[in-house]
Records
---
Amino acid sequence: MAVKIRLARGGAKKRPFYRIVAADTRYARDGRFLEKLGHYNPLLPDDHPERIVMNEERIKHYIGHGAQLSDRMARFVDKAGIVPGATRQRGTGKKAAEAAAEKAKAAGAEA
């Protein structure tokens, strides 16, 4: 069973609210899931403590057992410091390769 940590949308029309869930990749986006790992409310300000709430211990558990992160969850987890460097570059084209090279160059300059 391939597990993915992703967002499941809830809330009303034009009032989004997301649950952070661990789900089998075959399950529907807003459907069945294995476990709720937190929530994300994009309507709150960026600095509000309730904007993103994650159960770090359970997220680490699932990642340790091979779960993949969605693009958005990779950004959240990277920013929270749970899994540094989890953010992936989107795309496979020339621009993505250039961005990856610049990122590697900057990391080499810091070391």
---
Amino acid sequence: MKQKNHVPGIPRFFSLLSALFLLLTAANAYTAQEIHIGPQSDLSLKKEVQHAIDKGLHWLKQQQNAQGWWSQYEHPALTGLVLESFMGDPDGTYRSQWPAFIEKGYQYLLQNQRDDGGIYVKDLANYNTSVAIMALVSANKPEYTEHIKAARNFVVGLQDPDTPEKGALAGGVGYGDRYKHSDLSNTTFALESLYYSRYLLNEMSASGDMKELNWDAAIKFVQRCQNLPGSNDLAWASGDPVNKGGFVYFPGNSKAGEMKLADGKVALRSYGSISYAGLLSFIYARLDKDDARIQAAHDWLVRNYTLKENPGMGAQGLFYYYHMMAKALSGYGDDELVLSDGSRVDWRKDLALRLLNLQGVDGSWVNQNGRWWEKDPVLVTSYALLSLEIISRGL
């Protein structure tokens, strides 16, 4: 299995501008020097998408607390996702004008940075800090570099050590507090923040004292979450046609439960959102596109492509699923997906139309299924906007 140097520096052909551009559109680790654009520009759809983004951002602006945060004070990640949405606006209005409410949001993040470098209030330390790092990186402001470095070093320190005592959880990252075990969702958030922050700090000559993750151990953890016998050395990994190539929440545990196979064996179900997270994790670890682990993940995702539900989970985590899908398919370099029946799907158009149809008249989005906080319209609107912003740049 081929693997690039997996210390996550952006490839040398990226300029700072293009790297930040790709950050806001889900970095494409496999394409050539030019920004990857879809096969056929759709100006009409692009305008519709921008209109939806404008409405969503306007709605989010109105939801800000007077102290600068959004939705929940105790979870800076929610404010981080909102700020990423404003920084990712394809029109660039908020990045160029930097209005007072944006400054207030960033100050809230920085006010919650602790002496250990983490950006959190009481719990979910990795999730909150990793998302906050992405918001700070997307701002591209030199005055944030020391804050980013401190937060980055904190996240690196949360990685479970590669020791026998940790077993299959070694190399992963969890929530970072009373939730002791590593999981693939938290690991993906951590790898994303480390991938981009390292490049930005290097470009700004601020990488001194910057800690580095044990990427070999992280990759091993991710592959131990994949239903792929051979690369996954754990006995539960299944190569059955339904689950092969997909991912579970952490080794030995799937939020989608189990299924009994024809031969009497029991398999852990692969499911959609976490399988996109698994593919993204391999991308952030800079595995080659032809790596068998990446190809198996991509094959499972194409076989199970749908926008009606989060495969294996129904309506649970649906907008997180869309968010991970947009990042992963853009990062992989897909324009069209060739489904098992031979039909071709323009996933950008497909997902854009789905999100346009789900937007409320006030500009917000919400999931009627509350799993993973998705009854929170601030969270769900941020997921939808970030997805549309990725899509817009490919239209």
---
Amino acid sequence: MKVLLVQPPQFGKPGFTKIARVEPLGLEMVAGALIDDHQVRIHDMRIDENLEKAINSFRPDAVGISCCFTIDVYRAQRIARRVKNAGVPFVFVGGLHASLNPPDFDNKDIDCIVVGEGEFASRDLIGTLEAGSDLRNVPGIVLNTDKGQVFTGPREPVKNMDDLPFAARDLLPHGRGNKYFFNFWKPMATIETARGCPYRCNFCSVWAFFQGRCRTKSPERVAEELSRRSEPYILITDDNFLLSVKRAREIADIIKARGIKKRYSFQARSDTICKHPEIITQWKQIGLAHIFIGFESLNQEDLQAINKKNSVETNEQALKLCQDQGLSVTTAFIINQDFEHSDFEKLRNYIVSRRISLPQFTVLTPLPGTDLFREMEEKIQIRNYELYDFIHSVLPTKLDPKDFYKEFASLYSAAYIHSGVIKRRSSRLLKDLAARRLSLPHIIKVLRGAREFADGANYMQPLNTAGQSGDSH
């Protein structure tokens, strides 16, 4: 069969896509499971929105649509409608949000929803569809029928992560080129080495998606995937790369032995960093340049409220340890709806005084399917999924919304415009320009994106123009 896999477009002002666009790794993994038996293409609408042209040139028998994020729900629905109108007989949707919330896709334009890991479920789905057999025999999918949705039963997660197919990364008709980046890291590839997290932060949907299980690829498999990439920058997508310090150490040893030269970024918990500073040193020696740490808050009470199982003091220690190693650090903070002017000021001062190079600020968002959503559901004021983008509050704020978003924007202004971050990175940028790893238009694009985040008016516009329910189901 011919299968077209579609990544929805992204838009909005401000928007994270102006400062980062990562490859559609989930779809590339699904494609890797299909490619031996079917003709497969991937269409990334963030790069090319002309979906009809892609359909007319390929004429697929089935189209799969990714919906990992809540903000993609209406976009996925609209894509499904366009696909059906173009005459494609079978449409399915998968991804994190789709798996946790199948009723959002109970409509005539969508034939089924893949629940959970998509590689082998999609392979069995398409194989059964091609054979003309009963789809109810395929575990791990929800079928949309005239009598309602029918769940075919759970599918066992992949036991051995090394059994997963290699991502089919070369199926994009426009090519990879310099299309994917993270700030000034370009060109960049992503790699997944593990799935799941043992912690239970109430705002997180990842551990729910993976049913609380944690699984890892072997060090040898990770090194093999890295050796296949030509990109100089690698973003490891694991939610907790240091899930096993022993494994991380073994991966680093193999990378060094094979002479793989890359610059790496990964996400880790501060408590693991403090307990095992030697692992940071080891990875710095083989190319670690950036680390993402979820600080979440400067208040211990807030950490307890979200079930973070960590401390403010540990975060502070980990930050210093990483900075002493010369690493660029993204500290992620969650902005609570109870924030007052003094809370914003405290956080601004902290970012500037600690010379944090790449802070990230997101508004506390109860994503459907999370514990936080169930706890807060009665308080949610905005049901429009387009605003579940982590930069708008769907819950009532203590401050007037205009004041709240003005203060929120001031965090980015302090971090990226007035803190001297760009000046401190200018030497590296000039080297990348000289080596043609970066272009001046790309640098300008990222800087403009950062400035959009620093303008409070950009947050109010979507609130004034967006509906409260989005597309109807």
---
Amino acid sequence: MDGSTSAADLIERQVIELVDHLEEADAAGWYSRLEVSRPWSAHNPRIVGEFAQPSAIRRYLCRELSILLERGATVTAGASRRALTFQDSEFFAALDEERFDLRAKKLFLFGPERMALSLDRLAHYTGTPAESFQRHVLFTNYAMHVEAFLERFPDAQGPSRSGVQMPAWHHQTENGDGVSLINIGVGPANAKTATDHVAVLRPDTMMMIGHCGGLRNHQNIGDFVLATSYLRHDHVLDDVLPTTVPVVPTPRLNMLLLDELDKRNAEYRLGTVYTTDNRNWELNQRAPLAAIQTARCLAADMESATIAANGFRYRIPNATLLCVSDKPMHAAPKLSGEAVKFYQSSKRQHLDIALACLERIRTEHPDGLPAQDIRSSDEPLFGAE
């Protein structure tokens, strides 16, 4: 398909044909292949990429291919090579993300083997097919946010079976720009697992809406915390993303959340969130308190920095909106009776703020949020301006 000779009103149909070709190749047992020629690029005029299960990112592919054709690119779709089964001895070796030439511009951030495994594991962990996921993904570590989500969207699609590790629910829209909610449970290991696999879907946003321990005197139970940075003591990504690398939320996403907080006259503070892999850090306080005081942290949790770090690694706009559920340093630990009252009063407002922010993104940024701050010099073509 040659975008330079295509009438504007024909591009939508051409894109559908291209993606249909990709899905046909996949159904026949092949990895699907896209070749993009860009006459305006002096350094990367031709880029090729392979995909597994393109149906899982169909809406994303349609959007990105439409943008390229409208700019005058030429796009070819078809079969690439026989897809490897999970049992193939070559499959494991092909999963390594570091095997790609970092100097070469790629079409897509992930190889087809990595993509296939992540989509399979995503369905396993969440109990829902990868095709059900929407363009905006919320993460929580409490069932009460699921309750609020289902009150808001009673027709949301949920797990097809009981007992899944990280159940997900999806408020689906015709354009696929709805909201998915995953209850990842507690801890950075779960947060890493979930975001490792969600990343292949290339969502427009990832947002953590969880609870935290308030660390400042003038915080009250129920106050919100909007993260502006993170102190990464979760350790699960240190080998692939050193803690010396700055990780911050996406500025535009934070601005929209801040605006929603102000509209509701909500009590909140902005600052650094301390994320730890030690649920009982209060039992050995000297080292964590020294780090907390040095970094001027105002909240502690176990997932936020992990999600943000993987958002940075995989170029996905992300943010963190927490709610103070306890104050471990101020004689206000999380106790069962008080926790129940807190959850019931906070869950709807917390979710409403996040959803209102995402609604604005859906309206103001239908092609995705600006993400220059998380792009790299070898940025994949898809998802880049």
